[in-house]
Amino acid sequence: MTLSSQQTVFALVLGAVMALGLSAPADARQKQHDERERREQSDKGKHADQPQAKARRNAEQARAEARDRVDNRRRDNRGSEKPAYVQRRQQADVRHQVQRAQAAQQSQRRQAQQRRTEQQRQVEARNDRQRVVRQQAERERQTRSNDRRVREDARVREQRREMARAQNDREQRIRRDRQRADRFRHDRDLRQRQAAQRARVLQQQRRINQYRYQQAYYARLRQHQSRFDARNHNYYSDRYYSTPASYRYSYGDRWHQTNRYGADLIRQAVRYGYEEGLRAGRADREDRWRSDYRNSYAYQDANYGYQGYYIDQATYNHYFREGFRRGYDDSYSSRYRYGGRDGNGNFAILAAVLTAVVGLQLLD
Fold first, then answer.
1. Does this model's pTM top 0.70?
2. Distance (Å, rounded) from C-alpha 160 to C-alpha 150?
3. Distance (Å, rounded) from C-alpha 63 to C-alpha 278?
4. Do 349 and 338 meet the contact criterion of CB atoms below 8 Å apart?
5. pLDDT, tens digit, for every residue of 306-356?
6. Which residue has the higher pLDDT, 241 or 170?
7. Sign (positive or negative) of CA dihedral 64, 66, 68, 70
8. Is the Cβ–Cβ distance between 294 and 225 less than 8 Å?
9. Residue 228 in contact with residue 156, Cβ under 8 Å?
């Protein structure tokens, strides 16, 4: 409450008290006047008295009037004193009411202040919680960022190490295949002498068809190697040396690994061996010679299609001979258990047999 509101309340209360104090003496005087009128009416109703009685009545009336005047003065005096007492009491009541109103107002102000304080405390507590949450979120974000940076750094380092290993492996493959190719070319003269010696033996045995087959095989072998010699192989553009291993195969009681280029070369060795075995078996059958695939020069050489790349010579020779043995058996016996005619009408090893012979397994 404002000061003007308090003054208005005080004026209203004081006016009500004064109105009550002034109305009480007026009511008393009205009652006395009514009593005199009743007595006068009563006297008029009676018969006229004797002069003495009239004089006596007049005297009594005068005394009564005197008493009334005295009583009226006394009442007036009491009436004039009573409003002051009542006024003081009413003023005290007003002061008490004002004090209570002020106390209530102060209580309201205290309660409002307490509410504001509590609201401020709640706001501060909420702000503190939000600040803690933001700080925790920031720490978590920073932790995740640090973890990502650490993982990224580790990944980059691992990539660099992997690139270094791949480069080192590539250089080792290139150096190894160069050495293989050099050895393979160096041994060509020895293989040529062996072929000539084997041809003389066939002539002595009068195995004309096997001799013709050997001469044809040796011609194909030299033609293939001539194409190989004429080509300047670019090791660094060959994708074999930059492709990681994706297969494994078992040979010589050991597991070896290679990529798809090496796997294709192993399959080629089996197919070429099967085709050469068909020719050698047909020649021995036509010469009416006993079945002996190991005595064939192509089986002993087993290098047709090899250039010194991707896999070592012994591995190529092994898979070539596996195909040769099956082709020789199919052709000599004319039963064709391992092969059949392809879309071009030529005999080729069956895909299931090729898969079983090669035995390649994908790496995990």
1. no
2. 15
3. 177
4. yes
5. 988 889 899 999 999 999 999 999 999 998 899 988 878 888 999 999 999
6. 241
7. negative
8. no
9. no
Centre a 10 Å sphere on the Cβ of residue 256 and count the other Cβ atoms it contains: 16
- Which amino acid is located at 296 in the chain? S
Residue 339 β-bridge partners: 349
With contact defined as beta carbons under 8 Å apart, do 255 and 315 qualify?
Answer: no
Q: Which of 124-133, 259-268, 339-348 has the highest mean pLDDT?
A: 259-268
d(CA 192, CA 219): 11
Regarding beta strands 361-362 and 247-251, do their DSSP bridges make them parallel or antiparallel, or are they unpaired? antiparallel
Joined together, the tokens standing for residue 318 give: 């092994």
Q: How far apart are CA 179 and CA 172, in angstroms?
A: 11
Predicted local distance difference test score (pLDDT) of residue 358: 93
Please report, for the chain, the start and end positions of each structural domain, with discontinuous segments joined by +: 1-34+61-145, 187-232+247-362
- Report how far residue 355's alpha carbon sits from residue 95's, in angstroms, rounded to the nearest whole number: 116
Residue 207 token pair:
């195995």
Secondary structure of the chain as H, E, C letters: CCHHHHHHHHHHHHHHHHHHHHHHHHHHHHHHHHHHHHHHHHHHHCCCCCHHHHHHHHHHHHHHHHHHHHHHHHHHHHHHHHHHHHHHHHHHHHHHHHHHHHHHHHHHHHHHHHHHHHHHHHHHHHHHHHHHHHHHHHHHHHHHHHHHHHHHHHHHHHHHHHHHHHHHHHHHHHHHHHHHHHHHHHCHHHHHHHHHHHHHHHHHCCCHHHHHHHHHHHHHHHHHHHHHHHCCCCHHHCHHHHCCCCEEEEECCEEEEECHHHHHHHHHHHHHHHHHHHHHHHHHHHCCCCCCHHHCHHHHHCCCCCCCCCCCHHHHHHHHHHHHHHHHHHHHHCCCCCEEECCCCCEEECHHHHHHHHCCEECC
Instruction: Classify 362 in phi/psi space as left (phi over 0), alpha (psi -120 to 50) or beta.
Output: beta
pLDDT confidence band for 262 (50 / 70 / 90): very high
Spatial contact of 301 and 191, defined as CB atoms under 8 Å apart: yes
The pLDDT assigned to 351 comes to 93
Length of the chain equals 364
Q: Helix 313-333 crosses helix 351-358 at what angle (to 10 degrees)?
A: 140
Q: How far is CA 229 from CA 18, 174, 298, in A?
A: 140, 17, 21
Supply the pLDDT for residue 22: 44
